[in-house]
Amino acid sequence: MLTAYSDDRPSPVVGALGAITLLTLLAGLVLAFQRSGESELPTASGVGPGRIVFASDREDDLDIYAMNADGSGRVQLTDSRSVDSYPSWSPDGSKIVFESDRDGNPEIYVMNADGSNQVRLTDNPAADVLAKWSPNGSKITFSSSRDRNFEIYAMDPDGKNQTRLTRDGATDISSAYSADGSKIVFQSLRGENGDIWAMNADGGNPVRLTEDPAFDELPVWSPDGSKIAFQRTRTDADGYDIWVVNADGSGERQVTRTKAEAVAPSWSPDGTKLAFHSNRGGGAKILVINLDGTGLAQITGGSGYGSYVPDWQRDPSVLPPTTTTVAPTTTTTRRPTTPPTRRPPTTRRR
């Protein structure tokens, strides 16, 4: 399904988004998106090449949309009357992987970039969520609770050869490949709280990269492999900000500083900007910011509906060389961890 729009037509927000299972990781964020009281932002222009795919409830339930990086040329790609969310571009831009509960529980699907040929890749009674492509398009990483707690898995683009990569009593979730495909970054509760970890693409040599009292979540690797962006809960207020850390865990730096939410970062093709969704000014909308924290601008509106979890298509013609450096293995002493019974960290209780 592909529907084109020339204007921002608001529609009612999905009824408290009660249909979203906790395992889709959006419910807590959407329910918290009240008016922030901060000033309106300029509209983004000249933000670079590539298209952005995202989820929106502008048609009464969460569906997948795509648009140009400046917000123009928006098209609706799915219309399943269910929850379609967390889309991710294939490296060549020809396909989009996403999660949906259209068949009763969250599963991973893939479709062509125009919304055609929607195919289910996973079929499991447990939740399969948060899929991301490898940089050469040969693998898709995702998270699944099929083994009692969330672990990281990888599979072929056709859904075959589903392989478990992590084996820990704590939640491991929200994974993404490095730019050269040799590493996978993910968030884990195997420490005292949610932190960012990295491991080899086969699951070996897991290394903790962040260690903070706050929750560090939804990590994504920069196009050149040198940095990782993620969201961090605030310790002095309820909410999230976007942070960046070097690939070896050094040089943590806060990018957004707002009273509002700043959630689900995605890198621009040249690695100089981040797209994310926020409730700044009221209603969930997609914003863009320079890596140094300047140039905050608005890509989508947010009146009466929300726009969430953007993924910025990477244009191979502008990608810089790729390198991946991860901190050496360290030994961390921690308390024994039992399989968590609470929701994954991106929907922490408020």
UniProtKB/TrEMBL annotation:
InterPro entries: 6-blade_b-propeller_TolB-like, WD40
Compositional bias segments (type: Low complexity): 320-336
Transmembrane regions listed in the UniProt entry: 12-33
Pfam families tied to this protein: PD40, Tricorn_N
UniProt entry keywords in alphabetical sequence: Membrane, Transmembrane, Transmembrane helix
Family recorded in the similarity comment: Belongs to the TolB family.
Protein name stated in the entry: Tol-Pal system beta propeller repeat protein TolB
Protein species of origin: uncultured Acidimicrobiales bacterium
